[in-house]
Amino acid sequence: AQLVASGGDLVQAGGSLTLSCVASGFSVRYSDMSWVRQAPGKGDEWLADIRATLGDTYYADSVKGRFTVSRDISKNTLYLRMTNLRPADSGIYYCTNDLRGSGVRGQGTQVTVSS
């Protein structure tokens, strides 16, 4: 299994970004997936889960109402739509092929939010 995240950028506070995570070697249709981030000098912070069966989604309180996780089965891709971004959202974002940040973690993508 491989995961490659992209879409990170430098954005001003209040702005929006959409991250993508292309999966290979397995199908996102049948796999629980999640997003986590790592801020400089800090450990992992779980952000969101999407369950395989019905596509149910779950969010950390810090991003609830601002971030939306989704998937496109035809493209075998996971997404994270981020709105109303804050400087505290800065970090490297990773997708994983299991819940709560567990499983395989691929290449991350850098998000920097300026104040």
How would you describe this protein?
The chain is an all-beta fold. The chain contains no helices and ten strands. It has strands spanning 2-6, 10-12, 17-24, 33-38, 44-50, 57-59, 67-72, 77-82, 91-96, 109-114. The chain has a six-stranded mixed beta sheet with strand order 2-10-9-4-5-6, with no helix packed on it. A four-stranded antiparallel beta sheet has the order 1-3-8-7, with no helix packed on it.
Uncertain parts? none
Describe the strand arrangement of the main beta sheet, using strand numbers: 2-10-9-4-5-6
Q: What's the number of helices?
A: 0
What pattern of helices and strands is seen along the backbone? EEEEEEEEEE
Note the gap between the termini.
Answer: 37 Å
Fraction of residues in H or I helices: under 10%
- Provide the structure class: mainly beta
Beta-strand residue fraction: over 45%
Summed over residues and divided by their number, the pLDDT gives a mean of 96
* Rg on CA atoms, Å: 13 Å
Global shape: globular
- For the secondary structure, the number of strands is 10
Biggest beta-sheet profile = 6 strands, mixed
Topology summary:
Layout: E1 2-6, E2 10-12, E3 17-24, E4 33-38, E5 44-50, E6 57-59, E7 67-72, E8 77-82, E9 91-96, E10 109-114
Parallel strand pairs: 2-10
Antiparallel strand pairs: 1-3, 3-8, 4-5, 4-9, 5-6, 7-8, 9-10
